[in-house]
Specification:
Blueprint: H1 3-21, H2 35-46, E1 54-61, E2 66-71, H3 84-94, E3 98-107, E4 110-115, H4 133-140, E5 144-147, E6 183-187, E7 193-194, E8 202-203, E9 211-213, E10 224-226, E11 233-235, E12 238-239, E13 245-249, H5 254-265, E14 269-271, E15 281-287, H6 288-297, H7 301-316, H8 321-331, E16 340-341, E17 353-354, H9 356-378, E18 402-409, E19 412-420, E20 426-434, H10 440-457
Parallel strand pairs: 4-5, 5-14, 9-11
Antiparallel strand pairs: 1-2, 1-20, 3-4, 3-15, 6-8, 6-13, 7-12, 10-11, 16-17, 18-19, 19-20
Helix pairs in contact: 3-7, 6-7, 7-8
């Protein structure tokens, strides 16, 4: 008998012997599901809308620190503007109540200055320009003004932002010294043929020199278009009946900023890119909380991005979004580091990934550290404020029952926050919906149905 056959026989004998020695596998009983789990299991399984979406969901009780229901809570999803809740938490931990608006150094008869990333300077929706301390400081200083941006170590567009968003009002460039919200504002007239206001076509008026009027050829759709890489504006009047302001981001350059400041301040402003200055003097100007509220209520992407630059500037003396994010992860959100990938402050990029578990965990931490009053201040109220003003309305005479942050990209809709139930409980929830082709409003309506169910039954 060959040695190979003997080896096979011996192997069979060993396998039979080992099988005979095994004990029966213990039967493990599945824990019984709670009424909440049964109710929400039935809701999700019967939902025609959620069956067409990849949906993560978690319902958490902060009083007992327990998860009441979870669906793909450890799976990664694109959160869209829900990421602003992390930006808010980071800002509350890293930035003072009154924000630094300018850093400067005086040498002889020259004042060298640089921005801190503060988004409020001459912003028409954030400041009363007649009371702007930074504006008055620069306008009234007797020294020669020299602008510096050597500390900006970042790209002006966020990581992973689509390139064709460059003319969109929701994606202004990130800059070290924002002016006018980094926007041009084009004023339309309501006439038979919609044209730009002849006396004041664009604000600030500095940008009038970039306008070029073309003839309508019968097919152009956009009234005003901006060139991809420069501030050249082509203007085509066409038939319409709407009168409004059209916001359009401008392209940052040091030369543009010095020219714009000189035009605004009515005095020369020069540029120097030297890194040998200390900028040890600081001008504090902007209250932080109104900025945070606007970022959360109106989902202001510009503010969110600039806040991360401000954190980096404060910590490292240079501006880099990635450095700010890494510092926050390593010092304030260590338990969530393996639960999400964070790439920008606003949520415009699809590079951001987060689990429902991490999103609910942040809301729990925020509630414990800052309390219910802060929740109601910073998070939009259902049916009342911000991006929730048309959704999750309370019954007449009742207080809002949902306080949450929205998040929307194409084929992505998220909602994460707090819900008050009819029994008086305050619960934390997170919806993360990705990869669907139904409308965003269909997803929102189904989330509203789920929250109604929770409100009335828990």
């Amino acid at each position: 008998m060959s040695s190979r056959i003997i080896s096979v026989i011996l192997l069979v004998i060993v396998l039979i012997a080992s099988a005979s020695c095994r004990t029966a596998e213990p039967v493990i009983d599945e824990p019984e599901k709670s009424e909440t789990e049964i109710m929400l299991d039935a809701f999700f399984s019967e939902s025609d809308i959620f069956s067409q979406s990849t949906t993560g969901f978690i319902l958490f009780d902060p009083e007992t620190d327990s998860t009441l229901y979870a669906r793909d809570k450890q799976r990664f999803f694109t959160p869209a503007s829900n990421i602003k809740a992390f930006t808010l938490y980071a800002a509350l931990n890293m930035l003072p109540d009154t924000l630094a608006s300018l850093r400067y150094e005086v040498r002889d008869d020259t004042l060298y200055f640089r921005g801190t990333g503060d988004p409020t300077f001459l912003h028409p929706e954030l400041n009363n320009n007649n009371n702007n301390k930074t504006y008055e400081f620069l306008k009234n200083r007797p020294e020669t003004l020299v602008y510096n941006d050597a500390h900006f170590k970042d790209d002006h567009f966020g990581s992973g932002w689509p390139w064709d968003w460059y003319p969109q009002a929701y994606a202004p460039e990130k800059t070290p010294f924002p002016v006018y919200g980094n926007m041009m504002r084009l004023n339309r007239q309501n006439v038979a043929l919609v044209i730009l206001d002849e006396e004041n076509p664009v604000e600030p008026s500095f940008f009038q020199k970039y306008l070029e009027k073309l003839q309508w050829n019968g097919s152009q759709i956009e009234l005003v278009k901006r060139d991809l890489r420069e501030n050249k504006l082509t203007y085509v009047p066409k038939s319409d009946t709407i009168s409004r302001v059209q916001n359009m981001p401008f392209v940052y350059s040091p030369e543009l900023i010095t020219d714009l400041l000189a035009d605004t301040l009515n005095k020369p402003v020069y540029y120097q890119n030297s890194e040998g200055l200390n900028f040890s003097s600081v001008l504090y100007d902007s209250p932080a909380k109104p900025l945070y509220i606007r970022m959360m209520h109106e989902s202001d992407n510009f503010i969110a991005e600039q806040l991360l630059l401000m954190m980096s500037d404060k910590k490292y003396g240079e501006m880099n979004t990635g450095k700010a994010i890494n510092h926050v992860l390593e010092n304030y959100l260590t338990e969530f580091q393996d639960q999400f990938r964070w790439a920008d402050g606003s949520g415009l990029t699809r590079y951001n990934l987060v689990t429902p578990y991490a999103m609910a965990g942040l809301k729990n931490r925020f509630l414990k550290e800052y309390g219910e009053d802060a929740v109601k201040k910073y998070f939009p109220a259902g049916g009342r404020s911000g991006t929730l003003r048309s959704w999750y309305r309370p019954s007449q005479g009742e207080d809002p029952y949902v306080y949450a942050k929205t998040g929307t990209l194409r084929n992505n809709t998220s909602l994460s926050g707090y819900i008050y139930t009819d029994s008086g409980r305050l619960l934390i929830f997170t919806f993360l919906n990705n990869n669907y082709i139904v409308s965003n409003n269909a997803i929102r309506s189904e989330m509203q149905n789920a929250l109604h169910l929770i409100k009335h039954n828990l």
